[in-house]
Amino acid sequence: MNSEAHSRVRYRCPSCFRMFTSITAITQHCESESTSCRIRHSENFRAFLNQLTAGICDLDGLHGADGTNRYVVPEEAARVFGRG
Ligand SMILES: [Zn+2]
Asked: Per-residue pLDDT tens for 25-71?
């Protein structure tokens, strides 16, 4: 289990700029009535959610050999979207 790679994935709330380490965490933040964040009331909230759910890949540094971008699929995304 390579948990260190997953731990580098970050999601930032575009409204309050808090950082979250999983899709689950930022989704709960966005849906929570207890937070003072205004993201839920934004007219762009739906677009943001679409972007969030599409964001199952994240940039995770560069390959040393050829310098191309390396993408990872967060563990939470795999769990949320299922593997069958
Ligand atoms: Zn927020």
From this structure: 888 888 887 778 888 888 777 777 767 766 544 445 555 556 565 55
Taking the centre of ligand 1 as the mean of its atom positions, its distance from the CA of residue 20, in whole angstroms, is 10
Q: How far is the CA of 3 from the centre of ligand 1 (A)?
A: 25
Whether this prediction's pTM lies above 0.70 is answered by: no
Contact between 20 and 26 (Cβ < 8 Å): yes
- Ligand 1 center–CA 48 separation, angstroms: 11
Going through the chain in order, the beta strands assigned E by DSSP cover: 11-12, 19-20, 58-62, 69-72
Residue 18 CA to ligand 1 center (angstroms) comes to 6
**How do the domains of the chain map onto residue ranges?**
4-81
